[in-house]
Structure formats: structure tokens, C-alpha cells
Amino acid sequence: PAHIYKTKIWWSVPPWLQGTLVRNGPGLFSVGNSEYNHWFDGLSLIHSFTFHNGEVTYRSKYLKSETYKSNTKADRIVVSEFGTMVYPDPCKNIFARTMTHFRNIVPNFTDNNLINIIRYGQDYYASSEVNYINQIDPLTLETVGRVSLYTSKNHIALNLATAHPHYDKDGNTFNMGTAIIGLGRPKYIIFKVPANASESSKVLTTIPFRSALYPSYFHSFGMTENYIVFVEQSFKLDIVKLATAYFRGVNWGSCLKFDEKDRGALPASSPGLYLKSSLPETSTLPCASHTDSAQKQQNDMIYDS
Ligand SMILES: [Fe+2]
Question: For binding Fe cation, which residues are annotated in this chain's numbering (predicted)?
């Protein structure tokens, strides 16, 4: 059962504030005798704050991801995370280990979705930055089940997607992802999931990488009424390192690198066409984490991150 508490309030909560705020984050850092190495690795704990008639009720529940279930069953960490690479069966012979390595060239990422709660259509999902998302019930915090975006049956197939999509006034969701391995030409993908579940999701546009083996890492992007703003920044994924990480025994996090020679770029939505950017030449870190706002003012785009 979920832990449910009526919270103590030091200041007053206005009675017009009604509804439920759902968040998530890392909540459990050890399983049995094993521990995670990084704050980004902890098993997802879903929290909710329900505001009703000036009172606040807090509730929390661990996300019952396949990762959570596998770890709990084994009583140790058996699924690799951003900063923790683990090997499910250390007793396997070299042949079996090599075969496991080939299966892991397309990394079977964790579904420990600990970054954000997002809405696609009418459904709510715990999300991280990989192909797996886990649907949750926003009221009970029960896990409904996992969905993979890496499947040819999907209209949108990708390896990575941000945990920070945008929503328009009609409730449609816009997000960006990356197809790196096993999904045809490597590319960034901008897609739309309609608010109306009877309509299908669609890819709005794709953008090829500037450098095939070093796509940019991006944690979020900008959106205005008419534009998607994407900075192809100089903090990058190293595809060769990613494909060999499992065999080399290093974590996924070590496959990211900052390219000091690169100034970053603003690709336009037409493939191959780049906008002239005004990223300051003197900037040493054209690398944004969260996009706070993007808005169009006459001929300028104001991008705040
Ligand atoms: Fe974030």
C-alpha cells in the first residue's frame, strides 16, 4: 500500500488550490547488499501532493518497473543504471558473455523512470530519457505497466527521448528523441502525441546528426506556438563507447563527453539546413540543461535556458 500522510501546514493553503501534483525522483539506493554509485541511479519513488479545501495529503509509492521487480526478486541490483554497470550473471562462460555483449550493443536500458511525470494523450507516465516509460495511475500511484518506444510497431521508434516534453493549449504533447542504433539512419526525431487517444502519434520532422558518431545530448528543448527550438550542443554521446560500454565494464554515464572544439548549432527543421546562431563566440559552455522558455518576438527568438 502507498504511504499516505496528512501534512502539517505552517502557512495557509488557499482553498481555491485543488488538485494533485505528481513528481518522482530517486528513492532507493540499495537492494540487498548492493548499492548504486550515482544519485541518478536510485529506484524511482513517485510522490503526490493532493490539495483539497486547504488541506494537503502526501502519498508515495515505488514505481514497480521491470527493473524494480528484477532487483527485488534477486535481492541485489541486476539492471545497469546511468552510473552503475552490473552483470546479471557473473558465472556465465566467455561464449555466453560475448553473446550477451552483442545483445547489449543495442543497450537494453533500464526502465527505472525517475526523472519526470509526463502526459501522453490522456495517460500519465513516469519517464526518464530512454525508450521505456511506465504508465502510472496519478491518483493511486499504482504502476499500470511499461511501454517501449523502441519498436517498429510504433509510429515513433527511438532509443532515447527527453523527460521534458511540451504541451500545447489543446493538450497535445510534443517531444524530441534520438534514434541512434538499429532504427535506420541516425537522427533526432520531433514527434507529436495527440490529446485525443483515437488519433495516432506522428513524427513531425527528423534532423540528421551533424556528426554520425557523436550526436548531442539534450535534456530539454524549446517550443513556441510555431517553432521547436533545438540546440545541437557540444555535450555529446559517443556512440562507439556506448556500444562497447557493457563489454568494457564501464557505465553509460562515461559515454558522454564535452567537445571543447564544437560551438554548438541550431539546426532548422529542414534536414541539413542550419540556422545562423548567435551563440556567443566567447562562451565556453554552449550546453543547456533545462529550457525555461522560448518565445518569438518579431524577428528574434528569445531562448532562455
Ligand atoms: Fe530535468
Answer: 164, 219
The residue-averaged pLDDT of 153-179 equals 89
Q: Which residue in 66, 72, 22, 26 sits closest to 45, CA to CA?
A: 26
C-alpha cell at 109: 536500458
CA 7 to chain CA centroid, nearest Å:
30
Task: Indicate the pLDDT class of residue 248, thresholds 50, 70 and 90.
Answer: confident
**Ligand 1 centroid to residue 115 C-alpha, Å:** 7
Ligand 1 centroid distance, CA of 163 (Å) = 7
Predicted model pTM: 0.86
- The set of cell numbers assigned to 32 is 540487498
Q: Which pairing describes strands 222-223 and 228-229: parallel, antiparallel, or unpaired? A: antiparallel
Cα of 290 vs centre of ligand 1, distance in Å, is 6
How far, in whole angstroms, is CA 35 from its chain's centroid? Answer: 22
- With residues binned 3-state (H G I as helix, E B as strand, rest as coil), the percentages for the chain, rounded to 5, are 10, 35, 50
Task: Summarize pLDDT for 204-216 with one digit per residue, the tens.
Answer: 888 888 888 899 9
What 3-state DSSP class applies to 245? helix
C-alpha to C-alpha distances, 188 to 28, 161, 202, 219, nearest whole angstrom: 32, 9, 14, 13
Positions at the binding site for Fe cation: 164, 219
